[in-house]
Amino acid sequence: MAIIATLAAIPTLPAPFFLTPDLKPKRTMSDKSTLDSAQGADGGSNRMWGGRFSTAPDALMERINASIGFDKALYAQDIAGSVAHARMLGDAGILSGEDVTAICAGLEDVRAEIDSGTFDFRANLEDIHMNIEARLTDMIGDAAGRLHTARSRNDQVATDFRLWVRDAIDAAEDALKALQSALIDQAEAHADWVMPGFTHLQAAQPVTLGHHLLAYVEMFGRDRGRFADARARLNESPLGAGALAGTSFPIDRDATAKALGFDRPTSNSLDSVSDRDFVLEYLSAAAICAGHLSRLGEEIVIWSSAQFRFARLSDTFSTGSSMMPQKRNPDAAELIRGKTGRILGAFTAMSTVMKGLPLAYSKDMQEDKEPVFDAAETLMVCLTVAARMMANVAFDRDRLADAAGEGFTTATDLADWLVRKAGVPFRESHHITGRVVAMAEDKGCGLEDLEPGDLAAIDVRITEDVFNVLGVNNSVRSRKSYGGTAPENVRTQIAAARERFLS
């Protein structure tokens, strides 16, 4: 459940940035100037941690320390968490009603500025949390300083990031469902179209195109399951864990957890601020999903080649060549395949960041967001493109059928027939069939084109009845075992897939 569904008292917050790029905060001149040459002359950083420091940080320290250039993507989640925290503090009697009202109204004004692109993001304030708090202070004065009572930036960012990743999972779920829908529709339209099934990229046995496409529906269904599992585990609220040890204030962590759509608060304050398992799980699920997308992209690249001619991408998902006028390149499928590396890289980077960190929070963990933001945006683009690409791809029935019979793909049907009809042990039937294949290869014909006498010369137990199973259409119709490629099975599985994944 998105955070906006649980905070009905404030206006609708924007969706995550990767869903609506037009809502990304505009880059301001202060972004560039402060990020390129961070200045601390105004003591902005000192105001964050008080009187312990007498001078401002070095400009290089501010530059390496600042995260506002990327963590401003968390603004909606940060504001939602602050609203929930302020209301809880008010209900607990820690803040006055007047302060709560001023804080919530001020946060709404901050959100409006960020939405409109007029918010001035400042690198010397380090991150999204302090940028929002500083602007809130400008707007409402001292009441803003009370908002941070009973929380730390450690539990604040952990909460924000969980909310963000949860929204990213929900977005991936919707996109995967749309991709499955496109694949199921194509499978239904091609439930009985025969094509070669491959092992080692060598023709193996005939299958139906519908059956082949349903294999990807299953893969993406497992991806949805992994995302759902990750979502269930992350859906605990760290808010109220403080810097690492909790707080002495009489806060109600159950109330903030409920307000933000979490199932419960986290149980251990140390773990609450140092855990990034939810990030690793998201990236792991994303990486596996990207692998499935890459396999699909690879097959479309192969199938659309002049050598295969199984499929043709629409003009909207193909490109041409600047030099060769005849070229029709499957760039959408290639890019889906290529972008997998970025998502795998994000998982590797995050695993490396977290390796060996002592409890609790360490600044290394600031490196958690950029790879996740990039991976999430990349995954969403790839899923969306894949769904539209597959909805519009066209298949060549005649070419698929011709290829289905190449490479003696019904040899296994002959071996099975010898077992079933003549009582031949399978190992012996395998050897006999190999001799039949060798004969057909010498004659330059298919198995179904051999003469009955030729077959009998190899083994007298082979009768004319064998021609009832040879041929690609006979072969696929015979594969009626559960999960097999027979068209009637495929249609049954299509109905089941619609029920399992789309209802």
Molecular structure report:
This protein is 58% helix and 4% strand. The chain is built from 20 helices and six strands. The longest helix is centred in the middle third of the chain and has 37 residues, at 153-189. The strands form three sheets. The chain has a two-stranded antiparallel sheet with strand order 1-2. Strands 3-4 form a two-stranded parallel ribbon. It is elongated and about 100 Å long. α8 (153-189) packs parallel to α14 (369-392), α12 runs antiparallel to α13 and α16 packs across α17 (426-443). It is mainly alpha-helical and 503 residues long. α10 links the parallel β3 (236-237) and β4 (264-265).
Secondary structure elements and pairings:
Elements: H1 29-36, H2 44-49, H3 59-65, H4 68-71, H5 75-91, H6 97-116, H7 128-140, H8 153-189, E1 194-199, E2 202-208, H9 209-234, E3 236-237, H10 253-259, E4 264-265, H11 269-274, H12 277-303, E5 311-312, H13 331-354, H14 369-392, E6 394-395, H15 397-404, H16 411-422, H17 426-443, H18 452-458, H19 472-478, H20 487-502
Parallel strand pairs: 3-4
Antiparallel strand pairs: 1-2, 5-6
Q: Separation of termini?
A: 18 Å
Q: What is the overall pLDDT average?
A: 88
Shape: elongated
DSSP, total strands: 6
Question: Residue ranges: pLDDT <50 for 5 or more in a row?
Answer: 1-45
Beta-strand residue fraction: under 5%
Structural class: mainly alpha
